[in-house]
């Protein structure tokens, strides 16, 4: 909402196209009556009415049963066409490359598939380190940084469904196997925007991860920086938390995300 206001304020002479685009963003937040749309756009009610009528003729908006305008089917058709052409691995690759180059640590891109994560991409460190992860391999959601970053930004009901299907077992002495402990960690991730795996899947491997969102403002992937504490102590790895968060945000923006950062949680 703040971004839309800033866009309106930056343009001195807003043309019809600019108004229509801002109006679509406003309607993506909530349906509006003509007067409400006029007030938010800073234009006369008659101008807002003409604009909405034109957009309605082209199916970009529709009038609901409450007398408010909402997004029309043309928007959904375009969104579907966009999503079909968006390859998260292809779009994410430059962000991973920069993250790897800056940190000289192993970086990952992962997605949630059912109750597991799948590694879509990986760029190794130049150091002689071997990790469990590889492209196409699956891992548990509850004991990996990328998994916890994905889990934390799902609705609570979905988290409950996933955890109910998992028998949480220990891989190391640090693996979290208690549901209450896991939920506490999820709440912490939602505050900080960063998920940690402190040797919970592999003894010597520490990982911090951040979520990636798309144009629907839903979490679709996560990226991580992983290191072995033999070369990189936890406090050194933690220095890249800001870079990781910035990279996740830039990646999300490239996927069409327009919300605040860190993103709000959908409970």
From TrEMBL:
The lineage of its organism: Bacteria, Bacillati, Bacillota, Clostridia, Eubacteriales. Residues 74-257 form the IclR-ED domain. The keyword Chaperone does not apply. InterPro entries: GAF-like_dom_sf, HTH_MetabolicPath_Reg, Tscrpt_reg_IclR_C, Tscrpt_reg_IclR_N, WH-like_DNA-bd_sf, WH_DNA-bd_sf. The keyword Transcription regulation applies. Keywords: DNA-binding, Transcription, Transcription regulation. One of its GO terms (biological process) is negative regulation of DNA-templated transcription. Coiled coil: none annotated. This is Transcriptional regulator, IclR family. Residues 14-73 form the HTH iclR-type domain. GO terms for molecular function: DNA binding; DNA-binding transcription factor activity.
